[in-house]
Every structure is written in C-alpha cells, then in structure tokens.
Design a protein that fits this description.
By secondary structure, the chain is an all-alpha fold. 78% of the residues lie in helices and 0% in strands. The relative contact order is 0.16.
Length: 433
C-alpha cells in the first residue's frame, strides 16, 4: 500500500505540473496533504511533518530569494553590461568569434542563476551578428541552452538549489565538487563550437542559409544607464566581486552574504523608499516563487520520509534491481536523466524521481553527493529543450525559433553533451564506475 500510494502521489505531482493544471506551490500542497491522508495519518502528525520540513529548508529558501533580488538588481544597474559590451566589441566578422562570444556572454549573464535574464541579455546583444553573417538563429539557442545546462550549478543556480533541498547537501559542497567538471565542459563547448562554425561556414558558402528568417522579438536597444547608475557602476562592480568572493571562500554563511549585499546595494543605489519598493516589487514574485519551491520541496521530502513512503518505494525498487548491475546503477540512471528531464521538467524530476533513485543508490553503497554528480548533469542539460519549462518558450520567442526546429537541432547535441558531462564526472572521480 505504501509503495502504491507513493508512486501514485509522485505521478499526480508530475501530471499536475506537466499539464499546467495548477501553479507549482498548489501542486506541492495537494500531494503533501493527499499522501498522508490516504495512509490514515492523523492531522497532528501531518502538521509535524510540514513544520519540520519548513524548518529544514527555510534558510535555503530565504537565501534563494535574496540571491535573486541581489543579482537582478546588479543586472539592472549595468554590472554585467560592461562585461557583455567588452566581449561584443571584439567579435569582428568571423563566425567562430561570434559563437564563442555567444557562449561567454551567456555565461556572464547567467551569473544571477536565472535563465530569463540570460535570454534577455544574450539574444538581443548577439542577434544582429547572426543576422549580419547569416548564421542560423537555432545555433544561438543551442549555445545558450548548453550554457544554462552547464552553469546552473552555481551555488544559487536552480539545479544546485533543488539538489540541496532534495539531497540535504550544502550548496557550496555541490558547487565545489562539480566545479572542475563545469570548467571541463566549458572547454569542451568551446571545441564543439569550432565544428559548429565550420558547418555554418560551409552552409553559408553553399547558400543554404539564404532562406533563413530572422524574426527575433527584440533587437539590442543600446539603452544607456541613468547618470546616477553610471557614477555608481564602479561601486556596484566592487560589491558584486566582494559578494562572489565571500561565497566562493565560504567565510560567511551564504544567506547572510546575500541579505547584507542586497541591503547595501538597494540603499546605495535607490535613495527613496518609493524607488526601493519599485525594484523590490518588480522582482518579488520570482523570488517568492523560488523560495516557496525550496521550502515546499523540503516539506514534500519530509512527508515522504516521515510517512515511510520513501523507504517502502526504495525497498521495492532494490528488490527488483539486478544485483549484478549494482555498480553501474548511477551510470545507468545518469544516462537516462536527460530524456527523463526533457519529459518531466526540473521540478518534477528533482522532487519526484531523484529522491527515490538516491535512496536505491544508497543501499548499494553510493553516497548522496555521488548521486547528485551522476543524476544532475543530464537533467540540467535538458532544461532549455524541455517543452514544459517556461524559459524554453521565452528563449524561442525572443530568438524567433520554433520548438520543432530547436529540438531537432539542439536535442541530440545536448544529449551528447549530457553524456560527456557524465563521463567527465566519472573520469574526475565524482561518480564511481
């Protein structure tokens, strides 16, 4: 009974998200309440599960909210524009530099950990170069998708945050373990772009790109910062560097760094409460939604654990998994995580599937950190081709590329990159083989 209710509950959660039936917090709460009620657990026990879950993840949720507020503010104040402008000014008129610049700009604009800002900075800034050189826009969406997949492992990135909640690991532990793999993947991506540039050059020479349409929703406006923001730009750059340094050195708790950093930034850059409130209101909905995802994800996991459902599901899977394949368990599921991520999306896969696989892996002697290193790269690479992820549609709308074209071009390439990512984690010893 426990196993059946557990799988039905997770399936319901996946369906609610995949069919866009309701908003994410409501989907969590429906399943959080239904599973223990179906098992006959008393309201008092359910309340304990929920409050304990909130207590275990509240700090992480607050950290995520302040991280978003801080980096969106720095982005608006032009901290990342200076880097982007410096890169785009050096592109020239050759294809490979344009593709490499796309990767570098995407990385810089993804420092806030949010795909929408990466999209809205990268595409308008680089699109004119693609149009001028007749490079297909789908190449731009592929590069951006790959960068988001690789660099969502920043300590405040979506993949790291969800894994921190689900697996009970500190964000900096995940980041430090995977950083060498991220650098290797970035180098590999630069090599992949050599082949991509060669292919585009041949297509252009053969006239195959002559009929390509360029229907971007936006063009780079070149809008200048207000005078006050220009004067404060050096201060904001120093503040951002200081925040990043404190995060990577792990001297102060992450949530404290972002709380203090955001407070200093908003007080220095906005003099009146009206101006401060305008910025806060502009980004509060995104910050709140991600904060709720972290907290409710912790509650969901605590309900599954406290009710005995997760243990029963793990035992059932362990009993049917071939013992001879045990040493390859993480490699097998790591290879499957990309297609599963494309189908389920980040939230459903992270909170619905990952805990079960991790539980099975732990019975065969694998650590939780090893499970993260094996499972997360695949579904991270699927983020921007998953049709149920809003960011995918935002990117395609801004670039003027339809989903079918993007998936046909990028889908298999990102799958190969996901497998390469897994192979690198194995070679570096993050995942045992």
């Amino acid at each position: 009974m426990l196993v059946l209710i557990g799988f039905l509950g997770i399936l319901l959660f996946i369906v609610l998200l995949a069919r866009n039936t309701t908003i994410m917090p409501a989907a969590f709460i429906i399943v959080i309440m239904l599973i223990p009620l179906c098992l006959g657990i008393s309201p008092q026990e359910i309340s304990t599960f929920i409050t304990d879950g909130i207590a275990s993840t509240a700090t992480l949720g607050i950290m995520a909210a302040f991280a978003i507020l801080f980096f969106t503010l720095m982005n608006k104040l032009g901290v990342f524009d200076a880097i982007v402008g410096g890169i785009t000014q050096r592109i020239g008129t050759h294809i490979y530099p344009v593709l490499l610049a796309t990767m570098l700009v995407s990385i810089c604009s993804h420092l806030d950990g949010q795909a929408p800002s990466t999209i809205l900075v990268t595409i308008p800034a680089l699109y004119p170069f693609y149009k001028k050189l007749r490079i297909r826009p789908v190449v731009l969406t592929f590069i951006l998708s790959a960068v988001v997949g690789i660099w969502s492992f920043l300590p405040w990135g979506s993949v790291t945050l969800t894994n921190s909640v689900v697996m009970g690991l500190d964000v900096l532990v995940i980041w430090q373990e995977l950083l060498p793999s991220l650098l290797c993947m970035t180098g590999l991506m630069a090599l992949v772009l050599v082949g991509t540039a060669y292919t585009e050059k041949k297509r252009i020479a053969a006239g195959l790109n002559n009929d390509v349409t360029y229907d971007s929703m936006f063009q780079f406006s070149g809008e200048e910062l207000p005078e006050r923001a220009k004067k404060l730009l050096p201060f904001n750059v120093v503040l951002t560097v200081a925040v990043l340094a404190l995060l990577f050195l792990n001297i102060v708790n992450t949530v404290v760094v972002f709380m203090v950093g955001y407070t200093i930034a908003i007080l220095v850059n906005y003099r009146t409460m009206k101006e401060q409130m305008a910025h806060f209101s502009e980004n509060a909905s995104t910050a709140l939604m991600i904060c709720l995802a972290m907290v409710l994800g912790g509650v969901f996991g605590n309900v599954l654990n406290g009710s005995g459902v997760l243990t029963a599901m793990i035992s059932a899977l362990v009993s049917i998994f071939p013992q001879a394949w045990a040493r390859y368990l993480l490699t097998i599921f790591g290879a499957l995580s990309y297609p599963l991520g494309c189908f389920l999306g980040l939230t459903a896969y992270s909170f619905g599937v990952t805990p079960v696989i991790n539980g099975v892996a732990s019975t065969f002697g694998f650590t939780t950190l090893q499970s993260v290193c094996a499972l997360a790269p695949g579904y991270s690479m699927s983020l921007m081709v998953c049709p149920i992820m809003p960011s995918t549609h935002l990117m395609l709308g801004v670039a003027g590329v339809d989903l079918k074209t993007h998936f046909r071009y990028s889908g298999w390439r990102l799958f190969l990159l996901a497998l390469a990512f897994l192979a690198i984690t194995i070679l570096l010893g993050n995942v045992p083989l």
